[in-house]
Amino acid sequence: GGRRYDHRPPRHWGDFRAVPDQGPAGGPLAIRGVSFLYSIHLIEYRVPSMISQKAKYALRAMIALARLPVGETVQTQDLADTAAVPKRFLEHILLDLKARGLVTSRRGKKGGYALLKAPESITFGAVLRIIDGPIAPLPCLSQTAYRRCPDCPDEDACEIRHVFDKAYEATRRVLDKLTLQDAMTGIDEQKPKSSAQAEIMQGIGI
């Protein structure tokens, strides 16, 4: 997804036109653009999103599993219907979650899927990291996949890192605290939901 911007110099000031991308049929367009004052050659730009569609599907499925009575399982098709997730996507998602120890499956006529851990012990952050990978906006901020930015000589003096660190810390606190149980029962009325919590809950359709 996203858009790829052509890095070649424009023919003249104000040259801004779309050229076909070399990706798959029906893929995005490569755009050649230039600013009014300076020639800006953008090699690549991807529109950021909070979470992927796959992660939304995963969270819906996990919440549906959390609502099952203890000891019961649910068939994939029934879970897909309950969570409003296409079955073909759900099958892959469940395999990922099973491989990471969050869900379990049982064969047989009464088999199906169920949570392997209690709903109050599974956070949104844990599910997101399994499905989408690191949730930090910069590799140098990631707790699970830290990597120093190759073009940064001094992390402590990096203004960009300082700004995104504040935003990431606020988001991470919510994601690593909010559990499936919280999603089902709601946040304690004495502790009003923050705007970040409200957006996350609304974003996945709960």
Give the SSE map.
Blueprint: E1 4-5, E2 17-20, E3 29-32, H1 53-66, H2 76-83, H3 87-99, E4 103-106, E5 112-115, H4 124-132, H5 159-175, H6 180-185, H7 195-203
Parallel strand pairs: 1-3
Antiparallel strand pairs: 2-3, 4-5
Describe the protein in words:
The protein is mainly alpha-helical and 206 residues long. The chain has seven helices and five strands. It has helices at 53-66, 76-83, 87-99, 124-132, 159-175, 180-185, 195-203; strands at 4-5, 17-20, 29-32, 103-106, 112-115. Strand 2 and strand 3 (29-32) form a beta hairpin. It starts with a strand and ends with a helix.
Radius of gyration: 21 Å
Give the low-pLDDT segments: 1-48
Distance between the termini: 26 Å
Number of helices: 7
- Which term fits the overall shape? elongated
Annotation, overall tally of beta strands: 5
Summing up helix and strand content along with how strands pair, one would put the structural category as mainly alpha
Tell me the fraction of residues in β-strands, as a range: 5-15%
Name the helicity range.
25-40%
Task: Output mean pLDDT.
Answer: 75
The largest beta-sheet arranges its strands as 1-3-2
Largest sheet: 3 strands, mixed
Element order, helices and strands?
Answer: EEEHHHEEHHHH
